[in-house]
Specification:
Layout: H1 10-14, H2 19-27, E1 30-37, H3 54-69, H4 73-77, H5 82-94, H6 117-120, E2 124-130, H7 138-151, E3 153-154, H8 157-166, E4 175-182, H9 185-198, E5 202-206, H10 208-212, H11 215-224, H12 246-254, E6 258-261, H13 275-293, E7 299-300, H14 312-321, E8 325-327, E9 331-334
Helix pairs in contact: 3-5, 7-9, 13-14
Length: 336
Amino acid sequence: MGKGGRDGPIAGIMRTSGREKWRVLAAKGASTFLLLDGAARLLPRGPASPARPDAEGAALGALAGDIYRGLSPAERGAWPGGVALALQMLADRSFSAAGPLASTRPEDDGPDEGPFRAFREGRYVRVVNFHATPRRLAGGLEEQLTRLARSFAPVSYDDLVGLVGRGEWPHYKPGVILSFFDGFRDNYEVAAPILDRLGLVGWFFLVSGWISAPPEDQRAFADRHFIDLPYDEHDLPADGRLALSSGEISALADRGHVIASHTRTHSAAPPGEGPEALAREAGGSKKQLEGISGAAVGALAWCEGVALGENPLADAALRDAGYELLFANHAVQRVR
C-alpha cells in the first residue's frame, strides 16, 4: 500500500483520518522524537550520561531542519503541526540510526527551526506510541519491542525527570519511551507481559473516566469520546470489558511501569473550556488514577497533544494539579 496505508510511513499514517489509521497503529507502534523542552544541556559523557555521541544529535537536528524546510505551508499548519510532523518523518527515516546521518546543509538556527537545536544539545528522546494491542497481533508487537530492547534502554519516570530537569542519564544506551494510550485491556494482557520479559518500561496514559466505567458502558463511552476501537468482532472479549481494570492498573504500577493521565474524558483542552472543567480533566483524573494505582501520577498528555502555551487555562490546571511533565506532539515539557 502507498503512503498512509498499512505499510506506509508512520508520519503519513498519522495524517490520515478514519478507522484505518487506528487499525494500522494497532499493528505497529508509531515512532517519533520528542524534544525536551526546558531541559538542561546533557552532562559530559560518563557513567551517568548517555552513550550518545554529540555528532548524532547534531546530524539529527540538521536532518529535521531539512525535512521541515521541505514541508508546505499547509503541512506546517495542519495537525499535528510542522515541528511534530518533521519529528515523525525523521523517526521514519532514522529512528534506530547510530552515528552521523546525511544532511544537505548545516542546521538552521532561524526562528522557525530553532527548536531543532535541542538535538545538538542532546535534549531529545525517542518515543514509540501505541494504542490498542490486540492479541492476534502479538507476534508483530513482540518483534518490534525485541528490536527496541536490543538498541535502547528503558526510561523510568525518575529517568525522564532527571534528563529533563538536570540533563542526567544513568544508562549507557539511549532511552526509548514506550507509551500506551487510553487504557486498553489488551495492553495488560498482551503488551505488558512482553515488556516484562524484555525488561522494558511502559508508560500508560489512561483515560480515567473510561477505565472507571462499568464494562457494559465502555463501548458507548469510547464512541462518545473518540476512543477508537480498531477491533474485528473476534477481538472483543466475551465479558465486554474493553478497558483496564483497577487491579490491572495497580499491578502495572507494582511492576515498575508508569501510570500517567490522558485526562478524564479524552479531552483536548479546547480553548472554550472553563477552568472548572479543565480542573476535572487534569486534577480529577490525577486523583482518580492515584487512588486506583497507589502510585504518584506526575505526567499528562492531552488528547491531540496540546502543548504548554496553547491554552493558558489548561496550563493553570496542570500547575494546580501538581503535574511535573506534559507530553505534547513535539516535546516533553516541564510544568511550572
